[in-house]
Design brief:
8-stranded antiparallel barrel, 323 residues
Length: 323
């Protein structure tokens, strides 16, 4: 079970230099076509952390078209990961496992935000057999960050964003995660992180493997996930996803998922905003898309993020036969 203390650094051997803890939240302003995220990766035994804040508007096929991109390495690691301020202007405080708060003011004055997250369901621990009947398939190939200590949350994110002199109200339902454990980051893996929002009472989350076939992305296997119906979180036992993309960015997606009670859901997503995020981790890239999801009369907005190591991208997409 995920508790408030899981936002703090977890006990580990001080000599374990690859011990890593991460914190990530994604948010949007759908009517303005704005998609953003806040990410911090800490290595407490080395005394350093890396933090990336990325915000874009509309579809940006190239990374230099992103509207705010602030990634800083080798910042001083905070003493407490549940309540910290970083030299890049990012602050975080966890009030509980379901309630926390971010602020950020960029060093150049071009971006500031104040965002609160309040969970719409209990946080999900994919390695707890009472929460995840798919626990035998919960290992995401090559991804230590998902295979060690991990939590996934879904919540309402409210507050404000000021981006290059323009102010926006933020009010969305989307995802966050926290990870902890030993990990190597060397670009040998791929997976996708899928948030489906269909309004106040129906939301879902899924993790799939990601592989390349003839330079096309194929999703699978389904690793784990959950659906939240009127605040009740149920584990998923089956899920599939197909997508059409341009320059690695999803433009349209179809998802189908089934919970442990046999309830089946389907949704179709079309892209509102998208960008390649190349600096959340030096080993990897994320291709982030804000989707408008529809299922019958239900409509909502949330994200897909395809994560791929740079080496893994080369193996799947480069013309290696030309060497």
């Amino acid at each position: 079970m995920i508790e408030h203390k899981d936002f703090s650094f977890h006990p580990c051997d001080p000599a374990q230099t690859d011990w890593t803890e991460t914190l990530f939240m994604i948010f949007s302003v759908p009517h303005a076509g704005i998609s953003g995220n806040l990410y911090t990766l800490a290595r407490p035994n080395l005394g350093i952390c890396h933090s990336s804040i990325e915000i874009h508007k509309g579809i940006c096929l190239e990374p230099w078209k992103i509207h705010h991109n602030d990634a800083q390495m080798h910042l001083a690691c905070p003493k407490d990961f549940s309540d910290f301020s970083l030299a890049n202007g990012l602050t975080f405080k966890a009030h509980s496992a379901r309630d926390f708060h971010f602020t950020y003011e960029s060093l150049d004055g071009n971006c500031a935000l104040d965002l609160s997250f309040k969970a719409v369901c209990d946080p999900f621990d994919p390695h707890d057999p009472e929460q995840n009947p798919m626990i035998g398939g919960a290992q995401v190939a090559g991804y230590d960050g998902w295979n060690n200590g991990h939590m996934e949350g879904k919540g309402r994110i409210t507050g404000w964003l000021n981006l290059r002199g323009k102010s926006y109200e933020v009010d969305c339902i989307d995802g966050m995660d926290k990870s902890w454990g030993a990990r190597r980051d060397w670009g040998n893996k791929g997976a996708t992180w899928v948030q489906v929002s269909l309004g106040e009472d129906l939301n879902a989350f899924m993790v799939f493997g990601l592989r390349f076939e003839n330079k096309e992305v194929v999703y699978g296997p389904f690793n784990y996930g959950f659906v939240s119906v009127n605040g009740e979180r149920r584990p998923l036992v089956k899920a599939t996803m197909r997508a059409v993309r341009t320059a690695m960015l999803v433009m349209r997606a179809e998802v189908r998922f089934e919970d442990d009670r046999g309830e089946v859901y389907e949704a179709v997503g079309t892209t509102v905003a998208a960008a390649p995020w190349y600096n959340f981790n030096p080993s990897s890239a994320a291709f982030q898309t804000l989707m408008r999801w529809e299922s019958g009369a239900k409509v909502g907005y949330s994200h897909i993020a395809d994560f791929a190591g740079l080496g893994y991208l080369s193996e799947g997409m480069a013309d290696l036969h030309d060497l």
